[in-house]
Amino acid sequence: MGSCLTVGPNEALVVSGGCCGSDDKTYVVGGWSWAWWLISDAQRLSLEIMTLQPRCEDVETAEGVAITVTGVAQVKVMTEQDLLAVACEQFLGKSVMEIKGVLLQTLEGHLRSILGTLTVEQIYQDRDQFAKLVRDVAAPDVGRMGIEILSFTIKDVYDKLDYLSSLGKTQIAAVQRDADIGVAEAERDAGIREAECKKEMMDVKFKADTKMADSKRELELQKASFNQEVNARKAEAQLAYELQAAKEQQKIRLEEIEIQVVQRKKEITIEEKEIDRTDKELIATVKRPAEAEAYKMQQLAEGEKLKKVLIAQAEAEKIKKIGEAEASSIEAVGKAEAEKMRLKAEAYEQYGDAAKTALVLEALPKIASKVAAPLAKTNEIVILSGEGSRVTGEVNRLLAELPVSVNALTGVDLSKIPLLQKVTGSA
Q1: Cα angle 27-85-110, degrees, rounded to a multiple of 5
Q2: What mean pLDDT is predicted for residues 378-393?
Q3: Please, which residues have CB within 8 angstroms of residue 197's CB and are 6 or more apart in sequence?
């Protein structure tokens, strides 16, 4: 009898032993395996990443400077069959803490050995290269244990003598070193020269005084140059400040102008809307009523025009009818007159000269009235003559000439009428 054992992807299951004294070993990662009771042994090995923090304190570098280095390493058991078997041989049955302890001691040993071959500057200034070197050197050893180094970085580097803090002050240290060397050499030379002679000492003193004077002069010149440069820089700074202030004022002015432009645009928009409103109001209050009134007047004018046309047509029709009636009347009158004239002509033809004479006699009163018409407006006629018989003679002469005039006008001889013959004869 036995049992089925399962394992997740973060663990390795190792089943050893079996029937008939078999020494076969089964390695399972993220799977299952069968284990016999009493004759099979099943153990588990963690495959999770282990974080190590190797620390080497007061390790002397290649220059003899004691420093402390702290690193961070991420390691795990490799899952290849052969390497997993090696790891199981090394660590199976041990806890994670025990495995970390072994690997930590290995990494610290390699870290310590590498620190002794490098300078502080190489360690501090190129940490990535230092970490890569440690990883490359330690990887084969831990690989033989079935362990893989996933990453290794340097977390911290420091010393108790503030050597690292002095690296940034290289120039100051060099100046101090040169000063110390100069002092030592000066003291040495002074002791030697003092033993030789006082005169040389005085020459040296004179030279020193001369150098001091030159140094003072150079110092003053340098101060003047510095002051000139400082004043120039101040002037440039003041000018730059004024220029910047002018630029800022110009920007502010431009912003104000832009604000005014925006306000003016808004005012223009409001004015345009007011103009549109006024136009609409004028259209509603003036144009529309005016158009309505114009339309009304147009319709009235067209009606009046139509009325006049109809009246004119009626008048024309009336005139036409009156004209036709008058024409008919005139035609009838003409026909009657013609008939009358025909009848008169027939009568005249029948009666001959007697009819003509009667016609003339009928027309004589009318002729007399027409001739006497101008005299009707005369109030008084005065005939100037010295004799009364002369007036009578004039009247008789006029009566005697009347038949001759009528005969000349009508062709009728009134002198042949008996009554007229009596009148003219008596005249």
Answers
A1: 140
A2: 60
A3: none
